[in-house]
Amino acid sequence: MTSADAAGSQDPGPFYHGTKADLRPGDLLEPGYSSNFGERRTANFVYLTATLDAATWGAELAVGAEPGRIYVVEPTGPIEDDPNLTDKKFPGNPTRSYRTREPIRVLSEVRDWEGHPPHVLQAMRDHLDELRRLGVEAIND
């Protein structure tokens, strides 16, 4: 079964997940843990993307002092467009960002990714700080 078949998505992948967690092939990422973003509420979803750039943001912006990591993952159930990035901010889904209530399985680690330039990363952090100051939280329902 391909990732697209398992996901029920038209996007063939491959799919990525950016984080600071140290994971191994076969590990499952599941909802129900503290979110890496905002007020760190319990996440009802696990997020994945079909672009290395979006995964890079996830790896760079995740909470924690550990180095960012990007994993190739496969969804084990249906995925849907991430409403935090689609329709509200970007019509359609140009970032190819998704979420699922089902686990995603780690297949391998991407080791040769390149982070954003420091000034671009700082601008994104400043933007996220402003959203937090305004009380804007990720859609979690």
Automatic annotation (TrEMBL):
<dbReference type="InterPro" id="IPR038611">
    <property type="entry name" value="Arr_sf"/>
</dbReference>
<feature type="domain" description="Rifampin ADP-ribosyltransferase">
    <location>
        <begin position="15"/>
        <end position="113"/>
    </location>
</feature>
<dbReference type="InterPro" id="IPR021975">
    <property type="entry name" value="Rifampin_Arr"/>
</dbReference>
<feature type="region of interest" description="Disordered">
    <location>
        <begin position="75"/>
        <end position="100"/>
    </location>
</feature>
<dbReference type="GO" id="GO:0016740">
    <property type="term" value="F:transferase activity"/>
</dbReference>
<dbReference type="Pfam" id="PF12120">
    <property type="entry name" value="Arr-ms"/>
</dbReference>
<protein>
    <submittedName>
        <fullName>NAD(+)--rifampin ADP-ribosyltransferase</fullName>
    </submittedName>
</protein>
<feature type="region of interest" description="Disordered">
    <location>
        <begin position="1"/>
        <end position="24"/>
    </location>
</feature>
<keyword id="KW-0808">Transferase</keyword>
